[in-house]
């Protein structure tokens, strides 16, 4: 009987041990989910590698989209740990909706430029040229930060654009120029730089009238709140700033 009891106890211990090792907390891996403006795709993807190296067992996953769409997703209950917006207006909406925790911090700035086909075959020299007849011009939708910035420039210059379409994020605008579906598109300088060789870039001084600030914040009830705070600090820190500057972002 003593031997039987010992065998039962040993079996119970083995079952308990197997149960604890198969649980999520025993896997040793954590996933940090970052909702970020589409214009941050290249710089945040580069930062991901360094962050994961400094945090073994951590995987950073991104949801890149227009800032207004991301706020809507968060307001509808999407789970995320960090939100980085391409403008203050959409971050303010996130704050008002109660989906971010604490005060957001601005970590970069960005400005518009005109993306054109390589070699600029249409001879576009400035913002006013975008109102010329015979040009297919693409912009972001007004609720998207790059679209809001374009409207500010229109108001400041008195130039009225008649875009062929209004896209939901800046990468969609860039893609239409790259594929030849548009003669010109208003994108950020960072996006034009990311597609160097595939598009040309025409800067215009009026873009200084609509510089966008990029704020970042931890999402309320973030599943990985501790890691989220570390990601925010990383982006705000020296390494994050260096990577953003390399991509063409301005300092906050």
UniProtKB/TrEMBL annotation:
Amino-acid positions noted as binding molybdate in the UniProt annotation, renumbered to this chain: 39, 67, 170, 188
Position of the signal peptide: 1-21
Statement: the UniProt record of this protein carries the keyword Secreted: no
Entries under Gene3D superfamilies matching the protein: Periplasmic binding protein-like II
Sample GO molecular function, one term: molybdate ion binding
Example of a GO biological process term: molybdate ion transport
Record keywords, A-Z: Metal-binding, Molybdenum, Signal
A Pfam family of this chain: SBP_bac_11
Domain of life: Bacteria
Coiled coil: none
Family of this protein: Belongs to the bacterial solute-binding protein ModA family.
NCBIfam families: modA (TIGR01256)
Identification of the protein by name: Molybdate transport system substrate-binding protein
Originating organism: Amycolatopsis thermoflava
Species classification: Bacteria, Bacillati, Actinomycetota, Actinomycetes, Pseudonocardiales
């Amino acid at each position: 009987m003593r031997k039987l009891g010992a065998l039962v106890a040993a079996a119970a211990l083995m079952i308990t041990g197997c149960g604890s090792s198969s649980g999520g907390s025993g896997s040793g891996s954590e996933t940090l989910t970052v909702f970020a403006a589409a214009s941050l795709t290249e710089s945040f993807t580069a930062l991901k590698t360094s962050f994961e190296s400094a945090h073994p067992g951590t995987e950073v996953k991104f949801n890149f989209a227009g800032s207004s769409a991301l706020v809507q997703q968060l307001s509808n209950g999407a789970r995320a740990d960090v939100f980085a917006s391409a403008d203050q207006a959409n971050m303010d909406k996130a704050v008002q909706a109660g989906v971010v925790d604490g005060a957001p911090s601005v970590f970069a700035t960005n400005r518009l430029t005109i993306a054109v086909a390589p070699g600029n075959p249409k001879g576009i020299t400035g913002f006013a040229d975008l109102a010329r007849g015979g040009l297919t011009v693409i912009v972001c939708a007004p609720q998207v930060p790059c679209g809001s910035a374009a409207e500010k420039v229109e108001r400041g210059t008195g130039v009225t654009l008649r875009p062929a379409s209004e896209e939901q994020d800046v990468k969609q605008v860039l893609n239409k120029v790259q594929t030849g579906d548009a003669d010109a598109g208003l994108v950020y300088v960072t996006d034009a730089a990311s597609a160097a060789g595939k598009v040309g870039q025409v800067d215009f001084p009026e873009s200084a009238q609509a510089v966008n600030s990029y704020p970042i914040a931890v999402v309320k009830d973030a599943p990985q709140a501790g890691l989220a705070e570390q990601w925010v600090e990383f982006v705000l820190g020296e390494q994050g700033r260096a990577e953003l500057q390399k991509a063409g972002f301005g300092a906050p």
